[in-house]
């Protein structure tokens, strides 16, 4: 008994195969990652909420090593963000006169 087998052999260079897989991974990561991407809305005015500056004095800004905690110090108070400085995450911790 003889069996006739027909095989199709595709020979793809390794660089083309690796490149194709890399493009597929990047495409899928963007596709699935788009739902978690959030843009910040611009803040119209913060004068009434967080007025810690004066016309003749500046402010100081400091951040933790990983950037998660951001501190802003002015002559009238201290603001703290515990979420990388994102809009809506700021809390006024000290109000000076």
Structural write-up:
The protein has a four-stranded antiparallel β-sheet with strand order 1-2-3-4, with no helix packed on it. The chain is rod-shaped and about 100 Å long. The longest helix has 20 residues, at 14-33. Helices cover 21% and strands 21% of the residues. It has 97 residues and is α+β, with helices and mostly antiparallel strands. It starts with 13 loop residues before the first helix and ends with a strand. The model has no long low-confidence stretch (mean pLDDT 77). The protein has one helix and four strands, in the order H-E-E-E-E. A hairpin with a 2-residue loop joins strand 2 (70-74) and strand 3.
For the biggest β-sheet, the strand order reads 1-2-3-4
Radius of gyration: 28 Å
How large a portion of the residues is in β-strands, by DSSP E?
Answer: 15-25%
Low-confidence stretches: none
Order of helices and strands: HEEEE
User: How far apart lie the N and C ends?
Assistant: 100 Å
The total of beta strands comes to 4
Mean pLDDT over all positions:
77
Total count of helical runs of at least 4 residues:
1
Major β-sheet annotation = 4 strands, antiparallel
Q: What coarse outline follows from CA principal-axis ratios?
A: rod-shaped
Helix content: 10-25%
Structural class: alpha+beta
């Amino acid at each position: 008994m003889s069996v006739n087998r027909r095989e199709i052999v595709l020979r793809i260079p390794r660089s083309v195969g690796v490149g194709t897989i890399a493009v597929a991974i990047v495409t899928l990561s963007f596709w699935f990652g788009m739902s978690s991407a959030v843009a910040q809305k611009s803040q119209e005015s913060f004068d009434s909420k967080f007025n810690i500056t004066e016309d003749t004095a500046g402010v100081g800004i400091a951040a933790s090593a990983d950037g998660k905690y951001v501190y802003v110090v002015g002559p009238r108070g201290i603001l703290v963000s515990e979420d990388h400085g994102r809009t809506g995450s700021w809390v006024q911790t000290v109000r000076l006169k």
